[in-house]
Amino acid sequence: MILLKGVIFDMDGVIVDSEPIHVEIEKELLERFGGKMNDEEHASFIGTTDAHMWSILKEKYNLKPSVKEIINMKREMFLNSIDKIELIDGVLDFIKGLHERGYKLGLASSNNRKSVMAIVEKFHLDKYIDVIMSGEDVNNGKPNPEIFLKTAKMMNLKPASCIVIEDAENGVRAAKAAKMKCIVIKGHNIGHQDVSSANLIIESFKEITLDQVEALYI
C-alpha cells in the first residue's frame, strides 16, 4: 500500500488569493502594448509560467518588448501589489495541521522566484514548508509534470506518496502526469476549466479534514 507522506501546494489561488491581481496586471500590460484578451483566453494560461504565456502573446499580438522585458515589468507590478494580497481562507490552519502530523510540505508555483519568496516571507510560510519551487526552477511549465516531480525529489519522496493541491486545469493535468493524487480548491477564478480528473474537489479548506485527505490513500 502507498502511504501519503507529502503535500505539494500550488501558490496563486491555493495559498494566496492573488489571481485577480495577476489578471489585472496581465491585461493592463497586454493592452499597453496593443493586445487584448478575453477572460476565456486568459483562463487557458492559469497555472502556466510567465515565459510560456508571454511567448505566445508576443507572437500572437506582435508585441514590441521582449518576453524578458514584459516579465520583468509584470514582476515589479506584482511585487508592488503584495500588500493587497491575503491568504486563502482556512489555508494556514490546514498547513499547520499537516505540519503537526509530520507530513513534508512543498510549494510548487509557476510564479517567478522573487514573487514566490515575497509571499513566503510575508506570511512566514517557511516555518512549515520544506521545499519551495518556482517557475524559474524548471524548464517546462505546467501542464508538464516537471515542477511536481522535482519538488517530490527535493522532498526525498516518491511521486505516488505525494498529493497536490491545485486550483487550475493545467495544475491538475501536471499532477496526474506526475502520477500524484490531486485536490482542487474551486475558487472564483476557475471559470470553465476542466478539473474533473481531480481526486477531490472542495470549495474551501474549511470543509475538509486531514482525515479526509489521508482517506484518499486507503
- Order of strands across the main sheet: 3-2-1-4-5-6
Identify low-pLDDT runs: none
Overall geometric form? globular
Largest sheet: 6 strands, parallel
Number of separate helices: 9
Instruction: Tell me roughly what share of residues is in helical segments.
Output: 40-55%
Briefly say what this structure is:
The protein is α/β, with parallel strands linked by helices and 218 residues long. Helices cover 40% and strands 11% of the residues. The N and C termini lie close together (8 Å).
Q: Could you describe the 3D structure shown?
A:
The protein is globular. The N and C termini lie close together (8 Å). With 218 residues, the chain is an alpha/beta fold. Helices cover 40% and strands 11% of the residues. The protein has helices at residues 19-32, 39-43, 50-61, 67-79, 91-100, 113-122, 146-154, 169-177, 210-215, and strands at 6-9, 104-108, 131-133, 162-166, 181-185, 200-202.
Topology:
Blueprint: E1 6-9, H1 19-32, H2 39-43, H3 50-61, H4 67-79, H5 91-100, E2 104-108, H6 113-122, E3 131-133, H7 146-154, E4 162-166, H8 169-177, E5 181-185, E6 200-202, H9 210-215
Parallel strand pairs: 1-2, 1-4, 2-3, 4-5, 5-6
Question: What are its keywords?
Answer:
alpha/beta, globular, six-stranded parallel β-sheet, 40% helix, 218 residues
